[in-house]
TrEMBL record:
<dbReference type="InterPro" id="IPR014722">
    <property type="entry name" value="Rib_uL2_dom2"/>
</dbReference>
<dbReference type="Pfam" id="PF17136">
    <property type="entry name" value="ribosomal_L24"/>
</dbReference>
<dbReference type="InterPro" id="IPR041988">
    <property type="entry name" value="Ribosomal_uL24_KOW"/>
</dbReference>
<dbReference type="InterPro" id="IPR003256">
    <property type="entry name" value="Ribosomal_uL24"/>
</dbReference>
<dbReference type="InterPro" id="IPR005824">
    <property type="entry name" value="KOW"/>
</dbReference>
<comment type="function">
    <text>One of the proteins that surrounds the polypeptide exit tunnel on the outside of the subunit.</text>
</comment>
<keyword id="KW-0689">Ribosomal protein</keyword>
<dbReference type="GO" id="GO:0005840">
    <property type="term" value="C:ribosome"/>
</dbReference>
<dbReference type="InterPro" id="IPR008991">
    <property type="entry name" value="Translation_prot_SH3-like_sf"/>
</dbReference>
<keyword id="KW-0699">rRNA-binding</keyword>
<feature type="domain" description="KOW">
    <location>
        <begin position="6"/>
        <end position="33"/>
    </location>
</feature>
<dbReference type="GO" id="GO:0019843">
    <property type="term" value="F:rRNA binding"/>
</dbReference>
<comment type="similarity">
    <text>Belongs to the universal ribosomal protein uL24 family.</text>
</comment>
<keyword id="KW-0687">Ribonucleoprotein</keyword>
<dbReference type="GO" id="GO:0003735">
    <property type="term" value="F:structural constituent of ribosome"/>
</dbReference>
<comment type="subunit">
    <text>Part of the 50S ribosomal subunit.</text>
</comment>
<dbReference type="InterPro" id="IPR005825">
    <property type="entry name" value="Ribosomal_uL24_CS"/>
</dbReference>
Length: 107
């Protein structure tokens, strides 16, 4: 059984391990089958680009690469990286909350 992702597109996350440790950014895309996330401004790689009519020079382009979802943690409204737990409210809706303080992470 594959584990569920703890982050969603649009979440603000902080990188907790690797070369970009300590950087924060917004989740651009989520790839649940590969358990990877794409975070803006994090894990920048250089990609060779062939010459095209739009870019006749070609060359190198810097872009974000996906990184393993276990390397990122959502940022609590208080500003620290947290684990996520799920809570069911009185009206029956399920929300993600901060494991430390209980603040809601969803909208």
């Amino acid at each position: 059984m594959r584990p569920k992702l703890h982050v969603k597109r649009g979440d603000t996350v902080i990188v907790v391990s690797g070369k970009d440790r300590g950087k924060t950014g917004k989740v651009i895309a989520v790839y649940p089958k590969k358990f990877r996330v794409l975070v803006e401004g994090v894990n920048i790689v250089k990609k060779a680009v062939r010459p095209t009519p739009d870019n006749p020079q070609g060359g190198f382009r810097e872009m974000e690469a996906p990184l393993h979802a276990a390397k990122v943690r959502p940022v609590c409204p208080n500003g620290h990286p947290v684990r996520v737990k799920k809570k069911i409210l009185e009206d029956g809706t399920k929300v993600r909350v901060c494991h430390r303080c209980g603040a809601a992470l969803d909208g």
